[in-house]
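Example record

The entry below shows one chain as it appears in the dataset: sequence first, then structure tokens.
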Amino acid sequence: MDRVQLLLLGFPVFLFCSDLVNLFTPPPPPPPKPHIHHHHHPPASSLLQTPDVSVAQNPLIGGVGYGTTVELKFCASCSYRGTAMTMKKMLETSFPGLHVVLENYPPTLPKRLLSKVVPIVQVGAIGIVMAGDQIFPRLGMTPPPLYFTLRANRFGAMATTWLLGNFVQSFLQSSGAFEVYCNGDLVFSKLEEQRFPSEFELRELIGNKLPESQFGKNLGKVWA
């Protein structure tokens, strides 16, 4: 076996092993949320003044979105992160104080289980192509005609197995979702609508879910 054949053999095996390690490596724990303590020290002159009741009752203090959490759950393997980041910045700009969380929306359980099986099938197929002459006799089986076809072009068969397996695995790990939740309530679902929300549509949906405030009651007038 010359150097070119070793390179053609080692490169797919190396990439396959790296995918296998990344697949079964647990994700890192999310970073802890920082606890921000606000210490307000009123000036001494304010002690001699009568507090402004209208300011204390102003619902816009702290931002129109204060106390509201929006969750953008999207398919990370579908390259939707850029769209999610754009929507996050838009919502935080439109509703100051709004807490926007980005999360991955996993595929269904059957697809996740099948995605775990794909690497095993890849390893088995590559092993049969490489050592089928020893495997079939030990099992008391006659090699099928397909084996001889694959053995005639071992390196091409291995590369095809690796590329096809990665494609199938990527398909099984994708959910195609872009779901928007406001305080736990679903306000938009790409799985149901089969489309992404526009920025104006998402802004209106979240604005209608805000707590009772001047901004929420007169949302159309504010944007006009």
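Notes for this example: Strands lie at 69-74, 99-104, 178-182, 185-189. The first helix runs from residue 3 to 24.
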